[in-house]
């Protein structure tokens, strides 16, 4: 079927990067291994960027070891980088957990005044994608992070139990796609992503990210009231099928999915056999009667694609494509 709902307005796009652009790497969530951070910065510098890590990325938090630093320090790093006029982009080092704890500590008036900048991350960073969209009206990138195995193209023996991504057997695909999006976004306006779970064509503005984080956002201050009129991107990691059922049911029962135009489903790494995951997705999403594209290759899977959030686009589930109305970055 084809959605007839008019699309939402697109979010404000950041400027594309050029050689010499200054890029800040932040850690809004979990702790970052120093060797991974150094390697990620080397990759960015190899792209001709003036990349640096913000002050508290490696500080850690002794009593709460799942956080990169205190909430105030992580928020200060993000705030200072965003509001520094010499910084052109802010990239996340990794996910994990903790972004929700800093969202309400940011000065969103100052963030809006600073204007949009390229912002990339995924997983727990979904909380920040939502905040930038709702509180600032900025487009962002659901994309690989600079201190993760896939971005660094680590082989499986070098990257056991990586919480943010499985190791990348396909080498530098993930970071090359991010690089193209940052420097030459017109070259990746049409993404050949997956296959139809439910057929049809829909137009809307992209949003979403990690399913469990989106469910956790419900009822919080400034949360997006619904996904109506949007093209919702969903993925997750380490959640058994019954938990995915729980999150989707919560979104359904709250009315958050009412009026969604279409959906794109990424990876479900370590969520059990895909047949079981797929059965849950069909059961919960089928009654919405909107186009749904599955196995789209974004999220925690090896070689993950970068997907623009806040972008007006056309989803063609039958063709397996997402086509942006304009490049993700201007």
Could you give the topology of this structure?
Blueprint: E1 22-26, H1 34-46, E2 50-53, H2 71-83, E3 89-92, H3 99-103, H4 108-114, E4 118-121, H5 126-136, E5 140-142, H6 149-152, H7 173-183, E6 190-192, E7 195-198, E8 201-210, H8 211-217, E9 230-237, H9 241-253, E10 262-269, H10 274-285, E11 292-294, E12 307-309, E13 312-316, E14 321-324
Parallel strand pairs: 1-2, 1-3, 3-4, 4-5, 8-9, 9-10, 10-11
Antiparallel strand pairs: 5-12, 6-14, 7-11, 8-13, 13-14
> Can you write the helix and strand succession as a string?
EHEHEHHEHEHHEEEHEHEHEEEE
Mean pLDDT: 93
Shape: globular
Q: Which structural class matches the secondary elements?
A: alpha/beta
Verbal overview:
- By secondary structure, the protein is of the alpha/beta class.
- The protein is built from 10 helices and 14 strands.
- The strands form 2 sheets. An 8-stranded mixed β-sheet has the order 6-14-13-8-9-10-11-7.
- α1 links the parallel β1 and β2.
- The longest helix has 13 residues, at 34-46.
- Residues 1-5, 156-161 and 165-169 have low confidence and may be disordered.
In short:
With 330 residues, the protein is α/β, with parallel strands linked by helices.
What characteristics describe this protein?
globular; 330 residues; 6-stranded mixed beta sheet; alpha/beta; 10 helices
